[in-house]
Amino acid sequence: MSEAQTVTDESTAASDLTAFQQNILSILAEEPMYGLAIKRELEAYYGSEVNHGRLYPNLDDLVDHGLVEKSELDKRTNQYELTDEGHDVVLGQIEWVLDRFVTDETRADEVRALLE
Q1: Which of 13, 83, 87, 105 is most buried when burial is the number of CB atoms within 10 A of its CB?
Q2: Contacts from 55-58 at CB under 8 Å and sequence distance 24+?
Q3: Using an 8 Å Cβ cutoff, are 18 and 3 in contact?
């Protein structure tokens, strides 16, 4: 697996993934994308170049774990889409973070404001 991670169990949780892989899933939660579009989104987030040698092995790992589906757009371009299991992993990660962040009504209001 890329990013020095090992998954020992059948189902994959966010805790089994690297932050980079979790970020890929979050990007794909918006809509299906081809590899270079994912790369651009990651580069905008990180503020630095993401090389192909890092991106594509991680995408392949996510496909292998059933979190992302890979399909061919044309002979040179693959599209990546979040699976239902991938959706559940993203949702579980959001829930985990919110459970820890929302400790009082002020923080709950901050989260509500983000959603508006």
Answers
A1: 83
A2: 55/24, 57/2, 58/2, 58/3, 58/18, 58/20, 58/21, 58/24
A3: yes
Q: Are 24 and 58 in contact (CB under 8 A)?
A: yes
Q: How far is CA 45 from the centre of its chain?
A: 13
Residues 42-55 pLDDT 10s: 999 999 999 999 99
The architecture (CATH level 2) of 19-115 comes to: Orthogonal Bundle (1.10)
Whole-model pTM above 0.90?
no
Q: Where are the domains of the chain?
A: 19-115
The b-or-e profile of 25-57 (16+ CB within 10 A means b, else e) is bbbbeeeebebebbbebbeeeeeeebeeeebee
Helix (H) / strand (E) containing 93: helix 84-101
Residue 78 belongs to what H/E stretch?
Answer: strand 78-82
- Report the alpha-carbon distance of residue 90 to residue 54 in Å, rounded: 21
